[in-house]
Specification:
The protein is built from three helices and 27 strands. By secondary structure, the chain is mainly beta.
Length: 368
């Protein structure tokens, strides 16, 4: 009988013994018949005439500087989808822990996890106008109006799954969330989902930007989210090659791309009639272009994603991923640039998880 933990169109009609559960502020433990029973919550005054069962606790309020556990699930099972909204911004830090590990296997600012780095707080820079909303319509991540963040990466676990969210703002923040999961037998060879944030602001001179390094174990790389903020010089910036060093590669990679826009499924600078042209698809997209407006929006910024769902990059021992920041200079020569680069790498691997580099502090993470 189909175990029901990894459904798709071919298995949708098959009977399963998996048990479906869901976590939210209305049912924070996910227990059977545990939803819509709150008597206290963010909307208790709104429901005062109706009582229990009428949207008393639709969201979680997180105190300044606090970290809240929003999922603590006893396995075996698999998280199947996640939806979030609220005080969306890089002040929220997501961490996922599998099977009682001390180190997180996911550590990432909330918008970046959903490939939307420039969705800063309520989409507004400190000075000036709103950053335009940029939807994503992909198979693994969807970002919908108005700041509805959705994730469909399957996340199996054998013993336990724990998700925390840290509020780095100096004031209380609000989180709406729904974490949908299934309980049931997990295949012995199931790998664990990982996601890691990195940035260089700006990138050091004549250095490749490191998207991922230090991975030890067997697994498969399944996605890249990249955001780039141009510094100083204009012109095209995306001539750089992405490189995958795997299983002992040191000086030269096994896989090497041909250009940034090529890796993300575009071509020729994404230039249509002299304009950068955004797009979003099931497995790749360049969905966000923030253009200068002659005032506070002084530099062009980009966000893009590439999901290796149909072509995962498998490794047996180790993995390192880098990309170059490359433009043009006089005489048809390449120009090593020093732009701001921010990335999230997504992969599956065996445990244990190698300790991640320390996440930058709140001020360092703040972007405009």
């Amino acid at each position: 009988m189909f175990n029901g933990l990894f459904p798709n169109a071919d298995t949708m009609a098959l009977r399963s013994k998996a048990r479906t559960r869901s976590l939210s502020a209305e049912n924070p433990t996910g227990e059977k018949a545990g939803g819509a029973r709150a008597t206290k919550g963010a909307s208790e005054s709104c429901a005062r005439d109706l009582g229990v069962g009428w949207k008393v606790a639709p969201c979680l309020r997180i105190a300044a500087g606090a970290t809240e556990v929003i999922a603590d699930i006893e396995g075996p099972g698999a998280i199947q989808s996640i939806w979030m909204t609220g005080s969306v911004g890089r002040h929220f830090i997501l961490r996922f822990y599998w099977d009682d590990q001390a180190e997180p296997s996911v550590e990432c600012p909330m918008p970046d996890f959903f490939a939307s780095a420039w969705m800063n707080n309520v989409g507004r820079t400190f000075f000036g106008p709103k950053i335009p909303f940029a939807p994503i319509q992909s198979a693994m991540v969807a970002v919908n109006p108005c700041r509805g963040l959705n994730c469909f990466w399957p996340m199996p676990f054998h013993k336990r799954a724990k998700i925390t969210i840290e509020n780095r703002m100096p004031q209380e923040a609000t989180l709406f969330y729904q974490i949908n999961y299934a309980l049931g037998g997990v295949p012995e060879d199931a790998l664990y989902f990982h996601a890691q944030y990195r940035h260089a602001r700006p990138l050091s001179a004549k250095e490749d930007f490191v998207i991922l390094d230090g991975v030890q174990g067997a697994g498969q790389y399944v996605g890249t989210a990249l955001s780039v903020g141009l510094n100083g010089s204009g012109g095209w910036w995306g001539e750089g090659e992405i490189k995958f060093f795997m299983d002992g590669d040191i000086d030269y990679p096994t896989i090497c791309g041909t250009g940034t826009e090529d890796y993300f499924g575009g071509a020729y600078n994404w230039d249509v009639d002299g304009e950068y042209t955004p797009y979003t698809g099931p497995y790749l997209g360049m969905h966000h272009v923030v253009k200068p407006n002659g005032l506070y929006e002084s530099q062009t910024r980009f966000s893009m994603y590439r999901w290796h769902v149909m072509d995962p990059i498998r490794f047996e021992k180790d993995l390192r991923v880098t990309i170059q920041d490359l433009g043009w200079m006089s005489g048809g020569r390449y120009l090593p640039r020093r732009d701001d680069m921010m990335s999230v790498a997504y992969w599956y691997q065996t445990l244990p998880t190698t300790k991640f580099p320390e996440l930058p502090d709140a001020d360092e993470l703040e972007i405009q």
